[in-house]
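Morning run. Coffee first, then this:
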Amino acid sequence: MSYILNIETSTKNCSVAIAKEGKTIVCKEIAEEGYSHAERLHVFIEESLKEAGINYKDLVAIAVSQGPGSYTGLRIGVSAAKGLCFALGIPLIAVDTMQTLAAQAHISDGLIVPMIDARRMEVYSAIFGPNLETIRATQAEVITEVSFDDLAETIYFVGDCAEKCKTVLTKENFVFLDEFKYPSAKEMSSLSFDKYKISDTVDVAYFEPYYLKDFMITTSKK
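And here it is:
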């Protein structure tokens, strides 16, 4: 049996899932205003393995959300995943955070636009088709009244940007799926298994999260 541990820590949601043959069998997660990933992640991993009735040696791979998202959250998730891969001698799989978020919206037609808040009116966004095929790659953009005007299809927005974007994105073909706010490890299961089957893995030593924008430390002018 192919058991994969999926780790998603790119946003406020600290999420862990155990998948068996691409199907989620256990998921532990919590979304908090104050990031608690460092405290929760390893606890969730241990609890998930125990609930699934397996040990670390039963895992064939570790999958981690590659970003974009929170710098700190991504570092915590990737560091944990790398450590486990090194210790267990198993491959590391990187899963697109935006595709994981988009996977929550099950549609038959139209387009899915996952968006992750990047402060002010800026977001990280991508565009996917109904089968999660990439229509437009992830980019950082400032949302305005003319954003996505060139898309005539019904557009389903998912992510944590609904509150600030609804006042700007008001076209009739725009639909906000408010219930899908954060990416979750349970949606990573089929994505990571598809990658595992074709040996689509990353180098454990050199893999780095996809931050999209450089992390900048500013100092006080006082």
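The radius of gyration is 18 Å. Good start to the day.
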